[in-house]
Amino acid sequence: MSSTDISINQDVHHPHEEHDHHHDQNFFEKYIFSQDHKVIGKQFLITGIAWAFIGGFLSILFRLQLGWPEATFTFLEPILGGWIVNGKLNPEFYLALVTMHGTIMVFFVLTAGLSGTFANFLIPLQIGARDMASGFMNMLSYWIFFLSSIVLFVSLFLESGPAAGGWTVYPPLSALPQAIEGSKGGMTMWLISMALFIVSQLLGGVNYITTVINLRTKGMSMTKLPLTVWAFFLTAILGLLAFPVLFSAALLLIFDRSFGTSFYLSDIFIGGAALSNTGGSPILFQHLFWFLGHPEVYIVIMPAFGIVSEVITTNARKPIFGYRAMIGSLIGISVLSFVVWAHHMFVSGMNPFLGSVFMFLTLIIAVPSAVKVFNWIATLWRGNIRFTAAMMFAIGFVSLFISGGLTGIILGNSALDIYLHDTYFVVAHFHLVMGAAAFFGMFAGVYHWFPKMFGRLMDEKLGYVHFWLTFVSVYLVFMPMHYLGIAGFPRRYYAWTGFETFNFFTDMNTFISIAAILGFTAQFIFLFNFIYSIFRGRRSTANPWHSNTLEWTTPVLPGHGNWPGPLPTVYRWPYDYSKPGAAEDYIPQTVPFSQTQSSNLPQERDLE
Amino acid sequence: MTNPSFKEDNATSGVHPLKFSLWLIIISIIMMFAAFTSAYIVRREEGNWLEFDLPNVLLINTLVILLSSVTMQWAYNSARKNNIATLKTMLLLTVGLGVAFLVGQWNAWGDLVQHNVYFGGSESNPSGSFLYVLTGVHGFHLITGLIFVLMTVSSALKYKVHSKNMLRIYLCTLYWHFLGGLWLYLYIFLRINH
């Protein structure tokens, strides 16, 4: 993967060799062990895209099994080798596929690939800083992530297979090597990889927070920050508070697996023989895991909130509706995300009264979420909308977030959850609201900031084809899953045709699988567009979308230090679009009020 | 590693970015121990919990690490007054006390084993394992702290720590006090929950 980084970044920076800052850097410092936040952002993006294709491919493999349960897959033998037994997918490998799909998508793509890319790339550019607070820590963050990627990737090729206990790795299944093939070496590597991943996230998060607090340029108060920066900032805070707890949980699991402790294990019989472990509690792991796990889903979705707010307001040519309410709802969601973790555990035998408390807190999250949705729609309302590819994905995000969010209200009810728990209804819910939605946010970000990253534009027509195929197939995949879930169809089952209750769902499962294959294939259009546009795309201007934020005041390809001259000074908030009386329909943040007397509002006259 | 942004003096809050970063790292370590100690309480409430006496050496260790905080602060104050000789002595004393603390913790583990409280294995109980984890993870962080102090010693020997160059020793002192305070919390926590 590092070789991909080299070739791409090489092309990016060569035309701009003339930047004087570059002269003393050699090849490795510039493109591989770079401390420049823009290069690190691109490294995260490219690694994230590579992971997304691996994760997506794994999901296609298990969709083949679910969609055509009677078929034989001898044609997969060249790829999967021993995992195809007599033309059938090995059942334990099916579980490994599900586990690795979840782990890769949640952590490696939608946490590292999304936050890592856009927080790194945009924070210094949008707050007017030369770089991150510590370029060295930032570089370390990427390379530790890369190391953790390699460990996880290698575990795919172990003879006993990668981890197979689900992405939540609940003990005792994940703690006992004799329980399942995937709990042998694969699980050990999963834990090592995750420990490295957490270190990488903490290094990155410390940097993001410090940079936002300390390195804002003159005039950039917290209430003049673009919503993207607010979202990345709060995401980093969530990560800083939540990831250490996952680290603790993982450490105790490592001790249980490899050092004979009994934190999570008690009174277990395997093959009729009792294990010596006593006194442990598997529920303890669930509490520790979900204390991270729930904030984690907001770590995934909040950067997408920020990106979508920015893309919608720019392309609707209207100020964002309710800027302060947007910040307030982000803060509200951040705070609430820490007090709802037990809604993942309604069926773990918890006290029903405690369940009601968590249900109440969970349902409150609908309020800030609804505020955000209302504000996005109100921003679109009677806007002068430009349907760029990024805008399509941003609007698609709002649609997916609504569809997926509504089922969250259903699942948040402890009584309903007891019925729907671990069915495809849950799968449909979180894939729409955090999986597909966060992907749409990521796509919106890539299409929107591609010109700033690579100095060229992505092809809009291919972008539309990509959007419509993806959008349609996402709904075709996940809408029927709600129906399966209400019928009680359980998730993570390898073979379901043997149950009389479910065996008439063959056609629907085949339909879902075909839609999934369609959606996955559509991503190759994006991949082609992405790589082609890096080298052959239409050359961009410095501010192709006529946007207000600071990154668009840099040269087409910002060099090391971002601004060739002094740092820009900020005079106004980032959303002065279509201001009545203004000469153009946008006023960048760097334009002082004294230059825009025709459009100043009464309270702004004092600032002239 | 030269970072142009520091030179331009656009820092919006008065705090140096590295000081701020260290505070954030401290917060993440606090979260980790918050997870361990709350897991400890939750697990203890469920019963099947081996009760045993804490090794007495832990009290001595607590005094040693508190003393090391005093010498560290002394070193910091000497640096501010450009009293380089005292600075070096106090930093080396801090290292010595830190090592003494770690040796003491090691002895505490030996003490536990003698009283049949094990980390793992068929005779272990989470109550003992938790004690090993809390002291072990704290000990790991203390080793990182010791490395930091040694780095400060090495720059002090090169006369790079003085009243005009306080950043490194400030960060070092902050981290060291935090590690001492963290142990004090763990010790009181273990005393109360035993």
Give an account of the 3D structure.
The complex is a heterodimer of chains A (608) and B (194). Chain A has a single domain, classed as Cytochrome C Oxidase, Chain A, CATH 1.20.210. Chain A contains 17 helices and six strands. Chain A has 608 residues and is an all-alpha fold. Residues 1-22 of chain A have low confidence and may be disordered. In chain A, a hairpin with a 2-residue loop joins strand 1 (84-85) and strand 2 (88-89). Chain B is mainly α and 194 residues long. Chain B has helices at 4-7, 17-45, 57-80, 84-114, 126-157, 167-192. In chain B, helix 2 (17-45) packs antiparallel against helix 5, helix 2 packs parallel to helix 6 (167-192) and helix 4 packs antiparallel against helix 5 (126-157). The N and C termini of chain B lie far apart (49 Å). Chain A: InterPro entries: Cyt_c_oxase-like_su1_dom, Cyt_c_oxase-like_su1_sf, Cyt_C_Oxase_1, Cyt_c_Oxase_su1_BS. Chain A: One of its GO terms (biological process) is aerobic respiration. Chain A: It is a multi-pass membrane protein.
Write a compact overview of the structure shown.
The complex is a heterodimer of chains A (608) and B (194). Chain A is 61% helix and 2% strand.
For the structure shown, list the relevant keywords.
heterodimer; A: mainly alpha; Cytochrome C Oxidase, Chain A; two-stranded antiparallel sheet; globular; B: 194 residues; Four Helix Bundle (Hemerythrin (Met), subunit A); 6 helices; 0% strand; respiratory chain (chain A)
